[in-house]
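In response to the reviewer comment on reproducibility (Comment 2.3), we provide here a single inverse folding case reported in full, input and output, so that an independent group could reproduce the run without further information from us. The structure tokens appear first.
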């Protein structure tokens, strides 16, 4: 595995924002991942694991560390009876489609989420009120403190709404995921269901301009008390406002789009402005779902900055 230098991060996240990573690699095996960690330790620099960068904001000044991208190069998967066993870099919509081809159901809700399965498990993502955690049997992880490989069963993963042990513990790299699916007789209806989901998403969400999906976390409690973040932002009259090159989407207020030349500061300032306005005017606490990667390699919830 080659460790590259001075790689633009714009090509590795959906906002297309970010300076250069001092070092960058794409492991193809566990041995490569261990080599990458050993390299970072030897150079006294931080390492940051990423998937498709669909939930990340890189600083426009880049990252003075090693980016370990667990993506296409680490994305094998296979079916065993009603189980899907996949490497962390596997592409989620592909897994959903392949499962239905195999007459196995359970991942249809993820068809429109443009990410790796490792990234999805990390935040227990999903859609249509479902979470990937519901289908997880076990997750194989590398503990970066002692370089041991361990198995976490579903209950060990502490899955909660858009949360898991992987968000809390920074020393676990997800390597392999075992997903339990339900056998179905015919895949036709499930294919139609997935097409419907995709159609619905493309009608609701901005598709053309770079964005990172939902910016603020929606939770059942927030939803019950005040509604979805998009509706809250719209009620505040903030739909369509912009700072620099970052704009609240006119199509869906919980999306921020990069109009072409947005910097990380533009996005951060816009997110903080929305959160501050919601707090001051409606006493609502909005929490950013997207994580910011600082030049020092720290991963920070943007509303905590
Ligand atoms: C257009 C669009 C629509 C979206 N819709 C949805 C949606 O409907 N539902 C939803 O839940 N999300 C949605 N998202 C957000 C995003 O896709 C998810 O948060 C996804 O889980 C992030 O995966 P990723 O591979 O892109 O990870 P990244 O964004 O690269 O990383 C996210 C976090 O996961 C960690 N991580 C990634 N891989 C690993 C690994 N192997 N081991 C340990 N940690 C790892 C990273 O360190 C980082 O902290 C959407 C995003 C976009 C751009």
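Designed residues, in position order:
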């Amino acid at each position: 595995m080659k460790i590259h230098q001075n790689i633009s991060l714009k090509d590795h996240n959906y906002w297309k924002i970010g300076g250069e990573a001092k070092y960058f690699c794409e492991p193809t095996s566990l041995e490569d991942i261990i080599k990458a960690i050993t390299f970072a330790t030897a150079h006294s620099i931080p390492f940051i694991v990423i998937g498709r960068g669909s939930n990340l904001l890189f600083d426009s000044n880049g990252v003075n560390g090693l980016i370990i991208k667990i993506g296409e190069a680490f994305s094998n998967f296979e079916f065993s009876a009603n189980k899907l066993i996949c490497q962390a870099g596997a592409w989620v919509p592909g897994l959903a489609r392949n499962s239905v081809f195999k007459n196995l159901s359970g991942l249809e809700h993820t068809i429109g989420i443009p990410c790796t399965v490792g990234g999805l498990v990390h935040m227990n993502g999903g859609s249509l009120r479902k979470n990937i955690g519901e289908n997880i049997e076990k997750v194989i992880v590398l503990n970066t403190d002692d370089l041991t490989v361990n198995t976490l069963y579903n209950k060990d993963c502490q899955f909660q709404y858009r949360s898991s042990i992987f968000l809390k513990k920074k020393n676990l790299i997800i390597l392999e995921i075992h997903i339990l699916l339900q056998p179905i007789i015919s895949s036709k209806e499930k294919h139609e269901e997935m097409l419907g989901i995709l159609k619905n998403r493309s009608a609701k969400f901005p598709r053309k301009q770079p964005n990172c999906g939902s910016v603020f976390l929606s939770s059942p409690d927030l939803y019950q008390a005040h509604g979805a973040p998009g509706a809250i932002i719209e009620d505040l009259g903030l739909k369509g406002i912009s700072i620099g090159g970052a704009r609240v989407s006119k199509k869906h207020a919980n999306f921020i789009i990069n109009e072409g030349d947005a910097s990380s500061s533009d996005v951060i300032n816009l997110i903080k402005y929305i959160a501050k306005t919601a707090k001051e005017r409606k006493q609502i606490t909005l929490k950013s779902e997207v994580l910011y990667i600082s030049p020092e390699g720290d991963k920070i919830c943007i509303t905590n900055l």
